[in-house]
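Lay summary. Proteins are chains of building blocks that fold into shapes, and those shapes determine what they do. In this project we predict the shape from the chain. Here is one chain we studied, written as its sequence of building blocks.
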Amino acid sequence: MAVAMFMHWPGVTSDQYDAIMARLGLDGNPAAGGVLHLATLTDEGLEVCDVWQTEQAFHSFLEQRMLPVVSELGISGEPEIRLVPLHNLYAGDPDMIDRIGAVSLPAAVASWAS
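And here is the predicted shape, written in a compact code that computers can read:
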């Protein structure tokens, strides 16, 4: 069953998030079972919402790829993670993803916005 993953990671900065994403290399090596990733940074830290095909796919990615990268980068703190069954996924303009490009690095979004 597909799940929505919500993560709150206090204290994580944009530079730390960008370093994690660059090291993960999701464009060339996508996460097995990953469907959608959204991230925002607030004054409190990082907020993420993902959609995964299964809870197991998320846990495999977390343990085998993400946490080792976080450790290598020396990023401290623990994310607060909540997984819930996905009830619905709606995209009002699914072609927008094609227009802006489906890439993992924030710089691509910044170049689209300018």
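What the prediction tells us: The chain is about 40% helix and 25% strand.
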